[in-house]
TrEMBL record:
This is Urease accessory protein. InterPro entries: HupE_UreJ. It comes from the Bacteria. The chain crosses the membrane at residues 31-53, 60-78, 84-105, 112-132, 138-161.
Amino acid sequence: MRSIRPLLAAGLVVASGSALAHPGHEAMSLAAGFAHPFGGVDHLLAMLAVGLYAARQNGAARWALPVGFVLTMLAAAGVAQAGFALPVVEAGIAASVLVLGLMIAAMARLPLAASLPLVMSFALFHGAAHVAEKGDAGLLAYAAGFGAASALLHLAGWLVARRVPETSAGRRTQQIAGFALAGAGALLFA
């Protein structure tokens, strides 16, 4: 009997996937939302860039920028789901990667009153794009998924940036990363 238990457990795990495969199922919507920021290089780079930029800021900006981004992105998703279309979404996403890359390369430290609205404006485009690409997924679970994934990517960028030393080599590394992001953003416009 004990030798059958692992096989039975494996069979149940495999069979459970077909039960979750129906459109609109909350678990699948959550998984699809979570996977979305990882599946597109534009979203992936923008999320990492927010974390990289926030980590080099002072005070409350270190946490306010990523939190503001995620909350604005979720709000924009709700507005987009309600039928309000945001124009030039793809250009806004490309601009987010380009501008954040340039800010990282320049080692810019804007006041929170300037950087937070800028980051939040980029989040509007990302939220609208997520909804446009959600298909049949349920909005709440899908939004929870892409919100969690975005926060995780912000944290990854933040942790990487915090590990770079405040030396001349560290500053060069930051500039190279920023210019690479800006270059990717420019390519996204093409």
